[in-house]
Structure of Coenzyme Q-binding protein COQ10 START domain-containing protein:
Amino acid sequence: RIMATVERTISINAPVEKVFDYISDATNEPEYLPSQVEAEYVTRTEEGVGSRYRWVYKLLGIRFEGESTCTEYVRNERIVTETKGGIVSTWTYTFEPENGGTKLTLVVDYTIPIPVLGRFAEALVLRQNEREADLAMANLKAIMEA
């Protein structure tokens, strides 16, 4: 197993509430996460924490399935989700007001199940995830500013 972290910050010309509401709905993930093909709620709670959803992710042609649980939810400030399944990860979104817009930071801590992939693929996955993060942030910006 290898642990890695991807971190990105972007300025979005849209109010914090709009960006937060969009990201807090997990079913929107396939719209901005390039490799995510499905997201469907198992349980959705009023307060956010405890909401669970199933996802399907295709990375370098390999299909991963798993479940995510919201472990922290502070309206218009922070969302933390923990995933288990093919890929174990923690996703932390932080929202800060910035000149009428939003400064959005995404930090993903994840573990790659190396035995599945081997050493060569490890470098590919790390690079691919960096690219995915760039695309996800660019997609979020485009969707929110449209």
